[in-house]
Amino acid sequence: MTDGPVSTSPAADAGGRAPADYAESVALPATTEAVPVIVSENDWWAARPAGSRLVGLVVARDDLPSVIAQRDALAGFGVPIEGFRHPAPETGETWSERLTRLFGRLTAGDVVVVADKHALGRTVDEETHAIAELRRRGIIVKVLGHSRG
């Protein structure tokens, strides 16, 4: 036998109150035009955490836009390009070694910006691995274009 009221509702808390008994009421605007715009519908994808560092990644490969086109796309997004260095030619490093070097320069909260989704790998598996590893490290990826299928 219990001393207090017994609730048969599984949603009730330990005090026997249902969520509606203590929920806060919020008045919503009657029309969508009255809802304030926090980020415009055209710029929502450009949002990034306050204080985050934008890091542009440019890759020189035949199946990607030119280095200049990639650099211009990054600059258009707001990536600082002062001191821009052209990417090194193929040096004998594996893709994994290059990614490891990139990861060593990034910290959680950084935003890596690429002009094309294929800059993160030569194959879908490489791209998927790179994005998963960046995400695991707390790094955000912004992709500005998708040039091939």
TrEMBL record:
GO terms for molecular function: DNA binding; DNA strand exchange activity. InterPro entries: Resolvase-like_N_sf. This is Dehydrogenase.
